[in-house]
């Protein structure tokens, strides 16, 4: 079930974020993860609309969106591949009318996930949003595959 998240959920969401990042972002150094974790918890969570996926009373993942972009999508590693990510994307497309996302180029699992769901690369940036040398792919939904 998709529900709007609140700041009371942030401690659980940041732990999901960390487990997911450690499972998919092998290009990030430990220090980068520590810095990002603090930024996300203390700043970024407050700048996006967050929805959580809850099953049997447990939060299994979340999506954070801005007016026109999916800013974050993270799922408990053991629940990946079970349709939660697809449910978040369908929600973003159909309910929020958001069809764009930026993805770290080195996160090949995420790039493949979005492309499988019909997103195509529009452009590429050499640096991420923090100015770090982690290239971003800017994707836009084109068609449902």
From TrEMBL:
It comes from the Bacteria. InterPro entries: Acyl_CoA_acyltransferase, GNAT_dom. Residues 1-145 form the N-acetyltransferase domain. SUPFAM superfamilies: Acyl-CoA N-acyltransferases (Nat). The keyword Transcription regulation does not apply. Keywords: Acyltransferase, Transferase. Transmembrane segments: none annotated. One of its GO terms (molecular function) is acyltransferase activity, transferring groups other than amino-acyl groups. The keyword S-adenosyl-L-methionine does not apply. It holds the Pfam family Acetyltransf_10. This is GCN5 family acetyltransferase.
């Amino acid at each position: 079930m998709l529900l709007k998240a609140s700041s009371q959920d942030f401690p659980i969401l940041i732990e999901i974020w960390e487990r997911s990042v450690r499972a998919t972002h092998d290009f990030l150094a430990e220090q980068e993860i520590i810095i990002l974790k603090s930024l996300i918890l203390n700043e970024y969570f407050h700048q996006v609309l967050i929805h959580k996926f809850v099953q049997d009373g447990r939060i299994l993942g979340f999506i954070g969106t801005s007016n026109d972009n999916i800013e974050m999508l993270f799922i408990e590693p053991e629940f990946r591949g079970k349709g939660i990510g697809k449910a978040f994307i369908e929600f973003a497309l159909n309910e929020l009318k958001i069809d764009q996302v930026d993805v770290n180029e080195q996160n090949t699992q995420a790039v493949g996930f979005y492309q499988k769901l019909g997103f195509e690369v529009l452009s590429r940036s050499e640096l991420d949003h923090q100015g770090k040398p982690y290239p971003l792919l800017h994707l836009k939904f084109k068609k449902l595959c």
